[in-house]
């Protein structure tokens, strides 16, 4: 079952040093977001505020407003 695989993946993230595989079709911008989330060390891992300001999750209208 697909759900079983996702649970195994969740456990592997918490107990392994290896990073989850990022699909090759993801843009560099999209790829950077999960990599920032999966950093194991809390001092190196992005904060929620940093993640919410990442271009992958920032609505395009925010960029348009700043561009003027």
Automatic annotation (TrEMBL):
SUPFAM superfamilies: Protein kinase-like (PK-like) (SSF56112)
Record's keyword terms, sorted: Kinase, Transferase
GO MF, any single term: protein kinase activity
Compositional bias annotation for Basic and acidic residues: 1-15
The gene coding this protein: NPK1
GO biological process terms, semicolon-separated: signal transduction
Residue numbers spanned by region Disordered: 1-27
InterPro entries attached to this UniProt entry: Kinase-like_dom_sf, Plant_MAPKKK
Name of this chain's protein: Mitogen-activated protein kinase kinase kinase NPK1
């Amino acid at each position: 079952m697909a759900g079983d695989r996702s649970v195994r993946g969740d456990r592997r993230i918490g107990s392994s040093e290896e990073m989850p595989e990022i699909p090759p079709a993801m843009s560099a911008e999209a790829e950077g977001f999960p990599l920032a989330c999966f950093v194991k060390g809390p001092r190196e891992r992005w904060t929620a505020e940093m993640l919410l300001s990442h271009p992958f999750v920032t609505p395009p209208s925010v960029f348009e407003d700043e561009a003027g």
